[in-house]
Amino acid sequence: MSDITYIRVNDDWNYLTTIIDLADRKVVGWSLSKDMTARNTIVKAWIAARRTRAINPGFIFHSDRGVQYASNKMTAILNFNK
Fold this sequence. Notes:
It contains 2 helices and 3 strands; from the N terminus they run βββαα. By secondary structure, the chain is an alpha+beta fold. The protein has a single domain, classed as Double Stranded RNA Binding Domain, CATH 3.30.160. Strands 1-2-3 form a 3-stranded antiparallel beta sheet. A hairpin with a 2-residue loop joins strand 1 (2-9) and strand 2 (12-21). The protein is globular. The relative contact order is 0.20.
């Protein structure tokens, strides 16, 4: 499961993206960025998660359908890992 949380810092916004393995409820990947690009949010969190956990056949990746998750880059990553 993954989501992006908005964090106000002074007059700016930062964006915390987390990926949680729901089997054991552990954060397996995260990223903190100053912009909402897919590259700096979900893709960086995905790379961190892949360093932490292997993907088993039939895995399910749950997220909202925000533009970062529906981006060409992220859908290509998820389709490659099928």
